[in-house]
């Protein structure tokens, strides 16, 4: 098996543990995030053929056409016609105080070069499989997407619906979980699953995810603390980064004031579906939400599909005003336009998401963990992306307006539900086919090892049977 690895933040030392004893595996290449020759992933230290992400968008006069370039036009226009390509290029290249000089015209050149160079790398290495430790959401996406369109299998070690475990999924867009052969689960595992269900069904202060608890405590249960941000900016940042963070802090404060003013008179409607915005730009929407990376589109679909008398409540993600902020992803135009939709209302950030879930008809998100929380609290969910928990009956994956309308009809007619037995059976299945974090909070050596050695990938009975669309070689 010839594999190509895009390690991201996965450490080389952990990779050596994952690949230990797998003699049938040949590592043909590495696409690393670092340009530093002293990096732990440099070819001088690993012995692997290594390329860098920044090199992916640089023209090289020695990069001549290869036999793989016979598919160049089809792959290129597929990627150019994918809106995520332009969102991602802006995310990566349009940063700092001089970001305004970047444009979609310049980004299109970089996209073309990335595709051309990716085809050259693929021809040189000819991998059977691309492995990434999480969905690429930087320049790596262009290489992996090119490989996928050329028919190369892509496996990702992704977070499972059980947040302390990782599993292996196939394809960047469908992320179909793969079954593995595991020993029979034990009583301790069952207890842990039951405790997780009990925790999510308790109060929000007990169930709040760690990634939200930490910034909540750091900001002392407040959002947009201008003085606090100014203090950390001048203590930790230097040079141009100081100016960029200072501007971000001021813009964030102004946006928070606007959002609070638009939600000041909020009252929970009688009947409503609640849509939870994501923190952006991040992996869970860019690229995982596909065409719905811009929340406006998902909200428009929902708004137009709701029957009379049913509202759409939209709640901002607290991290929008606790993490780094940019008006490129949150602008007054979004909030003001939402308020112009006939049946949309904005909910205060401090309102408990569990209260909004419990009093709703249903919830909606792209891929967020709030969807799993909703199912565990007895509410159906409409998801606009490959949410890892979509194998549950009460989770409805949608991609078109017609599918949204159908999903809402099912919800209004009470034909969507997951029984306790089905829920527990599903989570047991997840547990059997996943591995606990064993190298920090974001990665699993055992899941990586499984992705490396897996010979025949096949689908689980509880999952959506959807393959990856690619150009067949």
- Outline the biggest β-sheet: 8 strands, mixed
Q: What is the domain total for the residues?
A: 2
Tell me which CATH architecture of the largest domain applies here. Answer: 3-Layer(aba) Sandwich
Number of strands: 14
Helix content: 40-55%
Count of DSSP H/I helices: 19
Assigned CATH class of the largest domain: Alpha Beta
What is the alpha-carbon Rg in Å? 23 Å
Strand content: 5-15%
CATH superfamily of the largest domain: Glycogen Phosphorylase B
Mean pLDDT: 88
> What general outline do the C-alpha atoms trace?
globular
Short description:
This protein has 473 residues and is α/β, with parallel strands linked by helices. It has two domains: 2-182 and 435-453, Rossmann fold; 191-426, Glycogen Phosphorylase B (Rossmann fold).
Describe it for me?
The protein has 473 residues and is an alpha/beta fold. It folds into two domains: 2-182 and 435-453, Rossmann fold (3-Layer(aba) Sandwich); 191-426, 3-Layer(aba) Sandwich (Rossmann fold). It has helices at residues 12-19, 43-46, 53-56, 72-80, 83-93, 104-125, 140-149, 187-200, 204-207, 210-218, 226-236, 240-263, 295-305, 332-340, 353-358, 370-376, 401-412, 420-432, 445-453; strands spanning 2-5, 26-32, 50-52, 129-132, 153-159, 165-170, 176-177, 272-276, 311-315, 344-347, 362-365, 381-383, 395-397, 435-436. Strands 1, 2, 3, 4, 5, 6, 7 and 14 form an eight-stranded mixed beta sheet that branches. Helix 14 (332-340) links the parallel strand 9 and strand 10. Helix 4 (72-80) packs across helix 6 (104-125), helix 6 packs across helix 7 (140-149) and helix 8 packs across helix 18. The longest helix is centred in the middle third of the chain and has 24 residues, at 240-263. It is globular. The two termini are 18 Å apart. The model is unreliable at 457-473 (pLDDT under 50).
């Amino acid at each position: 098996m010839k594999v190509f690895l895009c390690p991201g933040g996965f450490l080389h030392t952990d990779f050596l543990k994952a690949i230990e004893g797998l003699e049938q595996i040949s590592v043909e290449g590495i696409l690393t995030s670092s340009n530093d020759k002293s990096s732990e992933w440099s070819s001088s230290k690993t012995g692997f053929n290594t390329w860098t992400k920044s090199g992916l968008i640089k023209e090289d006069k020695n990069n001549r056409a290869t036999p793989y370039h016979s598919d160049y036009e089809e792959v290129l226009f597929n990627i150019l016609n994918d809106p995520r390509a332009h969102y991602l290029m802006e995310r990566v290249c349009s940063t700092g105080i001089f970001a305004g000089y970047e444009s979609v015209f310049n980004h299109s050149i970089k996209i073309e070069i990335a595709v051309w160079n990716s085809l050259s790398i693929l021809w040189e290495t000819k991998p059977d499989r691309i492995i990434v430790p999480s969905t690429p959401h930087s320049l790596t996406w262009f290489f992996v997407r090119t490989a996928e369109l050329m028919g190369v299998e892509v496996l990702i070690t992704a977070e499972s619906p059980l947040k302390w475990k990782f599993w292996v999924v196939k394809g960047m867009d469908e992320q179909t979980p793969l079954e593995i052969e595991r020993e029979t689960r034990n009583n301790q595992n069952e207890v842990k699953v039951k405790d997780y269900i009990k925790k999510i069904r308790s109060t929000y202060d007990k169930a709040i995810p760690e990634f939200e608890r930490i910034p909540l405590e750091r900001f002392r249960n407040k959002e947009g603390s201008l003085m606090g941000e100014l203090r950390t900016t001048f203590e930790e940042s230097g040079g141009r980064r100081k100016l960029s963070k200072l501007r971000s802090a001021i813009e964030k404060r102004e946006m928070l004031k606007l959002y609070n003013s638009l939600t000041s008179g909020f009252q929970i409607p009688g009947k409503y579906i609640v849509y939870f915005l994501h923190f952006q730009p991040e992996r869970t929407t860019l690229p995982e939400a596909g065409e719905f990376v811009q929340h406006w589109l998902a909200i428009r679909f929902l708004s137009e599909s709701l029957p009379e008398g049913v509202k759409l409540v939209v709640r901002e993600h607290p991290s929008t005003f606790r993490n780094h902020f940019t008006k490129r992803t949150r602008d007054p135009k979004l909030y003001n336009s939402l308020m112009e939709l006939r049946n949309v209302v904005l909910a205060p950030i401090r309102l408990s998401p569990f209260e909004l879930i419990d009093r709703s008809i249903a919830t909606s998100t792209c891929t967020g963990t709030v969807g799993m929380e909703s199912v565990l609290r007895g509410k159906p969910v409409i998801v606009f992306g490959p949410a890892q928990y979509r194998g549950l009956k009460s989770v409805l994956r949608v991609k078109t307006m017609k599918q949204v309308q159908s999903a809402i009809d099912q919800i209004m007619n009470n034909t969507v539900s997951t029984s306790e037995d089905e829920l527990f059976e599903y989570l047991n299945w997840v547990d059997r086919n996943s591995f606990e974090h064993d190298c920090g909070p974001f990665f699993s050596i055992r899941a990586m090892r499984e992705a490396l050695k897996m010979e025949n990938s096949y689908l689980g009975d509880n999952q959506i049977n959807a393959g990856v669309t690619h150009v067949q070689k």
